[in-house]
Design goal:
Chain lengths: 207, 347
């Protein structure tokens, strides 16, 4: 148990580090935009700035997607199996980035992660002998799964925004998944109370 | 205020009513500030029931002020339609038809029987501060009932007093309402316009009406973010207390507002995305406001992740530090619109 909680803890720290890196890139982008007067530049130069910033942030987005690929399913699937799949995906990402470009690499990772997250969501929905929809833990896990799926779909949508109909469809699925995920995750007790039809205290709702 | 518009809208009544609200708020928050300072300095609670009543009254006046703003916007909707001659409507519709053919997001054609009207949400220009601080006031009242610590309540009250002071000194929405909006539309309502001049003004006003003032996303994107900002302020106060003392109830309240704040922030940011594509086209990514919003979301996300381990001693303080950082990131993100150029600038 202690080993599992250490694994969780280090995953959280890794996620925090990646989010910190994305924050630093964002702040760099702000100041670069201002001092280089990007808004005054010709469209081609603006696009060049955007492409450069995308190239900076994409490796961290890939790492974040890989981390959340482990984070949610780690309670549903064996850790060793997950670690191996993650290493395989890392290898695939690096190879694709060298053979094609970073955008293709991101697409490959997104596709694989989307597939994995759908499996995870199905497993979370199905529940288990000890964890079903009367328990708070079921809704927390389902909500967490939906939030992470929503994040993957959002990144996919950002790559496909030019296809208006597909973009709008993906966008609303993303929003629905994220909203439902946050509701289930953050307000699991309320959800359980609503389903069971009575107000339960935290001690009565098993995690 | 442009003379043409003066007679069309009840500016004087609105400003006078608003002054009553603002002066009353200033007096009430002045009194609550005294109570807050006393409680901060005292080891025992002082005047808790009166301060709760004061906080309730402040909230009532803030809500009343907000409803007063709603009434004024209703007047704008009723009394400022963009009416024009039938021949001009026909000509403009021909232009819009051609424009819409090549565009992903077109402008609706005009109907002479139903001229376009401004349906302006209640949080633009200075009104956004009023809405934001009203949300904070309501949250402060709810937290007042949850937490008994007189010093915690004192800090809640001081923040509210500061916000009312900001409203009164810099961001009064009642004295000179919506100056930028009225500056934009004043030429339309000036008498003696030629048809071509009117056509020109219309083609400036109409896209902004459709994609900004009347945009359906305007009813969701800003208010969700302001609710989030108010929740982040509560998180800031709880985080400071967590640094001083390990009190689980304070941590619990902070976490509840963290969940609410993150939910509102994420949904608000998500709803900004399709609106940006519609209003600005595709080339706004990595705009400074977008960058700072990403940064704020990343910090907030980190904060929520680390809270899972807040029971570990080091993580308790690290989480508190991140809660404070969330607040600073929020202030930075908001101020970015004034300092940095780009699509989302207030410059």
């Amino acid at each position: 148990m202690k080993r599992k909680s250490s694994y969780d803890f280090y995953l959280i720290l890794a996620t925090a580090l990646v989010l910190f890196a994305i924050s630093v890139i964002s702040i760099y982008g702000m100041f670069y935009f201002k001092f280089a007067q990007i808004q005054q530049m010709a469209p081609a130069l603006k696009l060049s700035y955007m492409d450069r910033m995308n190239d900076f942030v994409t490796p961290f987005i890939i790492i974040l997607i890989l981390l959340l690929g482990i984070c949610v399913p780690k309670r549903l699937l064996p850790t060793v199996w997950l670690n191996r799949v993650t290493l395989l995906l890392v290898g695939t990402a690096v190879l694709t980035a060298f053979l094609a470009d970073i955008k293709t690499s991101l697409l490959v990772i997104l596709g694989a992660s989307l597939f994995l997250q759908v499996i995870v969501l199905t497993l979370a929905l199905a529940g288990s002998k000890n964890l079903n929809f009367h328990k708070k833990g079921y809704w927390v896990r389902l909500g967490s799964s939906l939030i992470h799926l929503g994040f993957i779909l959002l990144v996919l949508d950002l790559l496909l925004y030019e296809r208006k109909i597909l973009h709008l469809f993906l966008f609303w699925v993303t929003t629905g998944a994220s909203v439902a995920g946050m509701l289930f995750c953050f307000y699991a007790e309320v959800v359980v109370g609503f389903i069971t039809g009575k107000r339960l205290s935290s001690s009565e709702i098993n995690i | 205020m442009e003379t043409g518009l003066q007679g069309m809208l009840p500016f004087t009544i609105f400003s006078q009513g608003g002054s009553v609200v603002m002066v009353t708020l200033l007096i009430l928050t002045g009194i609550i500030t005294l109570s807050a300072v006393l409680n901060l300095c005292s080891s025992t609670p002082q005047y808790q029931k009166p301060s709760t009543v004061l906080l309730l009254l402040i909230n009532l006046f803030m809500v009343a002020g907000f409803l007063w703003i709603c009434w004024f916007h209703w007047q704008i909707y009723l009394k400022l339609p963009l009416e024009m001659e039938q021949s001009l409507i026909a000509w403009i519709n021909r232009q819009l038809d051609v424009m819409n053919k090549g565009s992903s997001y077109g402008l609706p054609l005009l109907d002479a029987a139903a001229p376009p009207r401004y349906k302006i949400p209640f949080w633009i220009e200075n009104e956004k501060y009023f809405f934001w601080f009203t949300c904070y006031g309501i949250m402060a009242l709810l937290v007042q009932f949850r937490l008994q610590s007189h010093r915690f309540r004192a800090i809640l009250h001081l923040f509210l007093a500061l916000q009312v002071a900001i409203l009164y000194i810099w961001a009064d929405p009642f004295t000179s309402p919506l100056p930028q909006f009225f500056r934009e539309i004043a030429p339309w309502f000036s008498p003696g316009q030629s048809l071509m001049a009117k056509a020109g003004y219309f083609m400036q006003l109409y896209p902004k009406m459709i994609f900004y003032y009347n945009a359906e996303y305007m009813w969701f994107h800003p208010p969700l973010l302001f609710v989030s900002y108010a929740a982040i302020t509560i998180i800031f106060i709880t985080s400071i207390f967590m640094l001083v003392k390990r009190e689980l109830l304070v941590e619990k309240v902070g976490y509840e507002y963290a969940k609410l704040g993150f939910f509102m922030l994420t949904l608000g940011m998500l709803l900004g995305y399709p609106w940006a594509l519609k209003a600005w086209g595709p080339n706004w990514w990595w705009d400074p406001k977008i960058c700072s919003s990403l940064m704020m979301w990343a910090v907030f996300s980190t904060y929520l992740h680390t809270r899972l381990y807040a029971n570990k001693k080091f993580m308790w303080y690290f989480t508190s530090f991140l809660g404070i950082l969330c607040f600073l990131a929020m202030i930075f993100t908001f101020l970015a619109s004034f300092y940095f150029p780009g699509e989302h600038t207030f410059q």
